[in-house]
Design goal:
Elements: E1 4-10, H1 14-25, E2 30-34, H2 41-45, H3 48-62, H4 67-70, H5 83-106, E3 110-113, E4 115-120, E5 123-127, E6 133-143, E7 147-149, E8 162-164, E9 177-181, H6 185-195, E10 200-204, H7 216-228, E11 232-234, E12 239-244, E13 250-254, E14 259-262, E15 264-267, E16 271-273, E17 306-308, H8 319-333, E18 347-349, E19 355-359, H9 362-368, E20 372-378, H10 383-387, E21 394-400, E22 406-412, H11 416-428, H12 433-438, H13 449-461
Helix pairs in contact: 1-8, 3-5, 3-6
Length: 463
């Protein structure tokens, strides 16, 4: 059996899968090591796909997309229970695993199941579920081991009433009162998803705002919607203690002295890279306090022939960005670098409503000393928005005053994660405000909001 490869990839998530296939397409002999029995990584099993499947199922069963027309009380199905999600989730995951396996096989990527550990900077062992250890070596190695939920010490996690974001997918009941600790991407996604099931939801975060990396105006619009749908936001606050009673209820005491009684607490306070069991020290690789691996612009670690990509390197921890990181790492490893727009990676939050952005924020423009103008369009003011009953949603564009080039796109509302790609393409190709003013968009569409926002900016520039 061949044990030496051109490229070893550790982890079969989005970064690992894309890197392995890219390297194979470059004619390299590739081994992909996955510790689970099934490929896909966190994205398939506990992260992106399960949470987005849950989201779509909730939107479908709750009738959310029709409430703007028929009223807030409109609902497709009464008495929604956890089992309603199980069938769709399993069907989706089974299909996704089959697709990934087929892609890997079709591209001649060899797969090995086992827990990977470094022996030295060119050698990795894989211990399978039966305890058998196989040694492999490679010229180049890529680490895509992913992350797991960060679990604060002294919190009595029980997998039922007190859970982390990896466990919420396996809940066998729908809670009546949910406390979400953490106002980041994961916390806000689950808070809004469960609120649409008419669950009482409270979000606690130690910062003064949620989703801190986004445009402030977009976050304002989003938080206004949260309050409008009765999600309670408690900011600048920390959890002091948590205790589960004999009746199954959980008492949460905040540092301010406020007490909250719920039946489920979800901790979404960040994730930690799964690097502590890889024996990275034997390869000469160090990690930071969150287990993340520092890399350069080409995703090389401190050991040049060892790369890292995906969630193990930190922000933005998105499947889409991880895929591109893995692809770029593989290309660089084998001297096949080509044109890349990787600096234009879009960010997406699958909350209800969606949020997405690409390019510069206002804050970043100010830091860079770039003079800019803003154009905005409200979805409810578009014909398409009126037809489908949208009450919220906004598209915000940033243009350079000097060159009129599009600098940034920020969207909150229905279809945000799809609409953002129009702006992404325009930025990548150096497009200007004139493109949106002169282009004909299908009517009626939400995409037409780009023209409305551009005309808003045009009018401001030509006062």
């Amino acid at each position: 059996m061949n044990t030496h490869y051109d490229f070893i990839v550790i982890g079969s998530g989005p970064a690992g899968k894309r890197a392995a296939i890219q390297a194979s397409k470059l004619g390299k002999n590739v081994l992909l090591i996955e510790k689970r029995e099934i490929v896909g990584g966190v994205t398939v099993h506990t992260g992106t796909i399960p949470s987005k499947t849950l989201r779509e199922t909730v939107l479908s069963l709750s009738g959310w997309r029709h409430r703007g027309i028929y009223g807030r009380s409109y609902q497709v199905k009464d008495n929604i229970i956890a089992e309603n999600f199980t069938q769709r989730l399993q069907s989706t995951l089974t299909h996704e695993v089959e697709v990934i396996e087929h892609q890997l096989i079709r591209n001649n990527v060899r797969m090995a199941n086992g827990h990977a550990r470094f022996k030295d900077e060119h050698t990795v062992t894989a211990e399978n579920f039966e305890g058998k250890v196989t040694r492999y070596s490679a010229d180049k190695i890529l680490i895509c081991a992913g992350t797991k939920s960060r679990r604060p010490e002294k919190i009595p996690f029980d997998g039922d009433a007190i859970i982390d974001s990896d466990e919420i997918i396996d809940l066998h009941r729908i809670p009546k009162k949910l406390l979400v600790v953490g106002g980041g991407v994961i916390g806000m996604e689950y808070a809004t998803i469960y609120r649409e099931l008419d669950i009482e939801v409270t979000v606690v975060d130690s910062k003064g705002h949620v989703l801190g990396f986004l445009d402030r105006e977009i976050v304002e619009e989003f938080t206004n919607h949260l309050r409008d749908c009765n999600i309670s936001l408690i900011l600048n606050e920390k959890l002091k203690s948590i205790k589960k009673g004999d009746d199954g209820k959980v008492v949460c005491l905040l540092k301010s002295g406020k007490s909250i009684l719920v039946d489920t607490v979800l901790f979404a306070v960040g994730r930690r890279a799964v690097t502590n069991e890889l024996s990275l020290e034997k390869a000469g690789i160090e990690v930071d306090h969150k287990g993340r691996i520092p890399v350069n612009n080409n995703y090389q670690t401190s050991v040049p022939h060892i790369y890292a990509a995906g969630d193990v390197i930190g922000f933005p921890n998105l499947a889409s960005t991880s895929m591109e990181q893995g692809r770029h790492a593989a290309c660089h490893a084998f001297g096949a670098e080509g044109q890349s727009y990787r600096k234009l990676l879009p960010y997406a939050i699958y909350s209800i409503p969606e949020i997405s952005m690409v390019g510069l924020t206002e804050q970043r423009c100010k830091q860079k000393g770039i003079s800019y103008e803003i154009g905005k369009a409200l979805f409810r003011e578009t014909t398409r928005g009126q037809i489908i009953g949208l009450h919220e949603g906004m598209l915000k564009l940033l243009f350079s005053i000097e060159t009129q080039k599009l600098l940034g796109v920020h969207i909150v509302g229905e279809g945000a994660t799809e609409l953002v790609h129009i702006g992404q393409a325009v930025i990548a190709l150096g497009g200007t405000l004139d493109y949106f003013v002169q282009t004909v968009f299908n009517y009626p569409t939400l995409a037409e909001a780009y023209k409305v926002a551009a005309l808003d900016a045009y009018n401001k520039m030509n006062l």
